[in-house]
Amino acid sequence: MEKTKLSMYQLYKDMLDNYLQSKSEHALYAAQQFSKEMMEKDMSPEEMVSLHMSVFQEMVPDLPEEVVDSFDLLLEVMIGYGLAYREHQSLRDRQQQLESELNVAAEMQQTLLPDEHIDAKGIDFGVISVPAGKMSGDYYHYIQDEHGCIGVAVADVIGKGVPAAMCMSMIKYAMESIPEQRLQPAALLESLNRVVERNIDSNMFITMVYGSYDPRDHRFYYAGAGHEPGFYYSASKDTFEELTTKGLVLGLSQKVTYEEYVKDVQPGDFFVLLSDGVTECRTEEDFIEREQITEMIRKYQHLPAQDIVNRVYRELEKMQDFQLRDDFTLLILKRDV
Amino acid sequence: MNLQIDIKENTNENLVSLSGEIDVYTVPKLKEELLPLTEEQNKNIIVDLSGVHYIDSTGLGVFIGALKSADQSGSHLKITGVNSRVRRLFTITGLDEVIDIEVNEREEA
């Protein structure tokens, strides 16, 4: 440390000397470099002032007393800055630590989502889910059983960030504990509701839509718990229809029943499930209307399902200046033509 | 965007008028002001949302918390002055079936 101080002393002296003689930009630039080095070596502002004073006194031995004394005052003032600087450094360290913890948690969260692909004959499937921050309060799920039946779900935990993400994992494990209801959307929501109600804080809730598709008779059964309605596209009519469901959000009261709906799915028909991060997109001035979403989907509907969701996401992201305000999940399940 | 909270306390009734946006940023303040009112015994709490044009899901959570707390203390929570956008949110989530909501007549007309 003493050695560093000594070399710093010499370095600063040369620099000051150089500047006083040349008054050049170049010398000032050297000072900028010097300050970076100081910070790396954890030198405080008051140490810097005191260094300046000793160097200067050596260079100009007969300084007026007032000048020398005035530096004591400056030194005192700089001590305050020094404390703030050290505090800032320790906050920065802590922030880095939190950030890396959060990164680990975010990676863990990713592993909760299904990663195998749906590879079913006659079905085209695509999903995209992007958190507003590091962690997501959205959850999506898809699964295929031995008969080729497909279960799909999108859930949205109130709020976002870490608390929402922690709830999301509860949904995942609760769903796994009731595999026999995978193909009964209403019964599944009723079971889930009971689990969520017991385990959730009084001003939290979860919304969810669950659908199951049976490729043998081409029927899509679905039920919703207070979730943002998705869409059903009918190829023969070439229209989008709201996939409205009636049912209370999960976690509010023990005894809730959900209604189950069914649609006959024709070739080319598809279902769009989404979270409110899609429909609640906001531009500078206004909200995005639901019709704008269906128009976007229509524009890309000739593409594979995964490309449709990717493109719609990219377009909406751009409309919001690449700043998502809420977690975003969009899922499409299509019967091939 | 901010949220203005105006509270008028009467003997049997607390009137809470809100204006602005109820979202993740303004929710802590609203919770702090609204929840104590719902803990009082046997009162009517009327929340007027005429000045509110946007509520997100965290905002809905506050009303759920308020509803539960009002039920426990034998009080009654009523929401008035919802515009069509806010009303849609209450309808989708099914909360219009459990919370007493008075529709803004002018908006409906």
Tell me what you see in this structure.
The complex is a heterodimer of chains A (337) and B (109). Chain A folds into 2 domains: 2-96, Methyltransferase, Methionine Synthase (B12-binding Domains), Chain A, domain 1, CATH 1.10.1240; 113-335, Phosphatase 2c, domain 1 (4-Layer Sandwich). Chain A has 337 residues and is of the alpha+beta class. Chain A contains 9 helices and 10 strands. In chain A, the strands form 2 sheets. Chain A has a 5-stranded antiparallel sheet. In chain A, strands 2-3-4-5-8 form a 5-stranded antiparallel sheet. The model of chain A has no long low-confidence stretch (mean pLDDT 89). Chain B has 4 helices and 5 strands. Chain B has a 5-stranded mixed sheet. In chain B, helix 1 runs parallel beside helix 2. The model of chain B has no long low-confidence stretch (mean pLDDT 88).
The assigned CATH architecture of chain B is 2-Layer Sandwich
Helix content of chain A: 40-55%
Class of secondary structure makeup of chain B = alpha/beta
Biggest sheet of chain A, in brief? 5 strands, antiparallel
CATH class of the largest domain in chain A, named Alpha Beta
Backbone shape of chain A: elongated
Strand content of chain B: 35-45%
Mean pLDDT of chain A: 89
Amino- and carboxy-terminal Cα gap of chain B: 29 Å
Helix content of chain B: 25-40%
Report the C-alpha radius of gyration of chain B, rounded.
13 Å
As laid out across the biggest beta sheet of chain B, the strand order is 1-2-3-4-5
CATH class of chain B: Alpha Beta
Q: Which spans of chain A of ≥5 residues are poorly predicted at pLDDT below 50? A: none
Give the helix tally of chain A.
9
Determine the CATH topology of chain B. Transcription Regulator spoIIAA
Q: Count all strands of chain B and give the number.
A: 5
H/E element order of chain B: EEHEHEHEH
- At CATH level 3, the topology of the largest domain in chain A is Phosphatase 2c, domain 1
CA-atom Rg of chain A in angstroms: 31 Å
